[in-house]
Each structure stands twice: as C-alpha cells, then as structure tokens.
Amino acid sequence: MGKGDKLFNQALLLWQEEQQPENIQEKEKSIGRNPELIAKRNDHLLYRNFYYMAYGDKRWEAIRKLLSEEFYLAETTVFEIVMDNPARKREIIKENPNIQKLREMYPAMKW
Fold it and tell me: In 3-state terms, the chain is what percent helix, strand and coil (to 5)?
C-alpha cells in the first residue's frame, strides 16, 4: 500500500466518523416527522372535517375523500385521525366555530 492509499484511507475513515451520530438518541430524534407539526395538521384536519359536516351537504365518504386530497393523505389515514381524536372532536363541536372564525384561524383555506 502506497503513501497515497494510506492517506486516502485515513481521510475516508475520518469522513465516515463525521457522518455517524454522536449517540443513538441523536439518531432517533432525527428520524420521522415533528410531532408538533403532526398535531397541528391533525387539528386543522379536524376543523376542516367539522366545517364539511356542519356547513356542507356531503356524506362522510365524500368528506373523507376531500380531506384526503386537501391534506395529501390516504383516506384511511384521514379516517384514523378523525376516529382517534374523539375528545378534540367534541371540543370543536362544543366550540361551534362559525365560518368567519374558521377563516381567521386558517386564512389560506377556502371556507
């Protein structure tokens, strides 16, 4: 092995060490999506579901399809989000936001 090969191998080892996380927890933190962003998305989806149920004339299957298209999620994922958050759904129903309130909360959406 020549001097150039030895230097290359040492540089490669240093580079590989730099690419490795310092500990496993750091690596685990970086995997997946931010739970806060997921919670915000789910809350937004639940308000949108409320809007379609309260102010629309569509059936649940059509609403689920619309939500799937609006939030770029599979229909089964939309179903799971809605069904897995009964307490939050009750809070939104009790709050009973009008269209103006929904527009203020989520101005980028067409209400």
Answer: 75, 0, 25
- Residue by residue, pLDDT tens for the chain (111 residues) are 666 677 776 766 666 666 665 554 555 555 788 999 999 999 999 999 999 999 999 999 999 999 999 999 999 999 999 999 999 999 999 999 999 999 999 999 999
Domain of 69 in residue numbering reads as 42-111
Other CB atoms within 10 A of residue 47 CB = 19
Query: For residues 55 and 17, what is the distance between their CA atoms, to the nearest angstrom?
Result: 57
pTM of the complete model: 0.71
Domain-located, residue 27: no
Find tokens 């799971």 and name the residue.
80
Distance CA 79, CA 101 (A): 25
CA distance 38 to 91: 19
Residue 8 lies in a domain: no
